[in-house]
Amino acid sequence: MSDCLFCRIVAGTIPSKRLFEDDRCVAFEDVNPQAPTHVLVVPRRHVATLNDLPALGEEGEGLAGHLLRVAAEVAKGRGHDGPGYRLVLNCNAQAGQTVFHLHVHLLGGRQLGWPPG
Ligand code: 5GP
Ligand code: ZN
Question: Which of 32, 41, 63, 108 is the most exposed place for a label (fewest CB within 10 A)?
Answer without folding.
Answer: 32
